[in-house]
Write a sequence for this structure.
């Protein structure tokens, strides 16, 4: 199985962190990853369905999958 790219690992790393206050996460996305938040969330959603991401960081990926699933169920 292929390894995650550096950017993919960085996205998961950012998701492991907690952010205080509104806008802090979006600021970190722009400053640390050089991505627009919309693109970041596109990459993140793709990673949640990627078995490589699950193998790399199962705790984070499973937590984010649960959050995504509960948000979808609310709609």
């Amino acid at each position: 199985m292929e390894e995650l790219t550096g950017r993919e690992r960085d996205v998961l790393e950012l998701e492991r962190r907690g952010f205080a206050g509104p806008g802090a996460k979006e600021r970190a996305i722009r400053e640390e990853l050089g991505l627009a938040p919309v693109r970041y969330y596109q990459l993140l959603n793709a990673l949640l369905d990627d078995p490589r991401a699950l193998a790399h960081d199962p705790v984070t990926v499973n937590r984010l999958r649960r959050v995504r699933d509960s948000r979808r169920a609310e709609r």
